[in-house]
Structures are given as structure tokens and as C-alpha cells.
Amino acid sequence: MTTILYIYDCIQSRRRNARRVSFTKELYGFTYSWRTRSGVKQRRKVGLIEEHVGVESVADSTILVPEEYRPTFDSLFDKYQDILALRVFMVVKELK
Hints:
The protein is of the alpha+beta class. The chain has one domain (3-91). Helices cover 26% and strands 43% of the residues. It has three helices and six strands, in the order E-H-E-E-H-E-E-H-E. The protein has helices spanning 18-28, 48-51, 70-79; strands spanning 3-10, 29-36, 39-46, 56-59, 62-66, 84-91. Strands 4-5-1-6 form a four-stranded antiparallel beta sheet, covered by helices on one side. Strands 2-3 form a two-stranded antiparallel sheet. The protein is globular and about 55 Å long. The model has no long low-confidence stretch (mean pLDDT 91).
């Protein structure tokens, strides 16, 4: 099974950037909360990494994606190409 390795870096990571936050939320997901009369409620919005089986975050800004999900992740990275520096590798064989 071939795996795709995505290594990315936010170009403007030092500055507060709404697009960077939006990208991170789409990729990793987030938890949001709201107040009701009975108390505070919370709900989790899953990201692409949690949504697809076999996708794993192996380090900061590095994820492994099975080849079958490549179009989904390519479209996400294309959407945010203005704020990301991206390198994509095809992993053919894992040594250890």
C-alpha cells in the first residue's frame, strides 16, 4: 500500500491569521461550546485526519495519508496554497 507524506509549513505562522486558523481547524478538527439554560454544551467537529481511516499525524506539520485519500487532501492544500509551503512525497517502502 502506497502512502503519501505531506510536509507543510504556514508561511505567516508568527502573525495571527484567520486563514491559518481555518486551515488548522479543517485538518485537525475542533471543539466548540455554547451556553444553554441547563448549562454549557460542547460538540466536536472532526477534521480530515480523524475523518479518514489510516491517516496519521507523525510530527508537527507532517501527516501520512493513504493514497486513496490523496485527492481530498490535495484539494485542502490547494485551497490554502497562499499561506502554506508544501512538500509532498510518495512513500513506497517503510524500512522500520
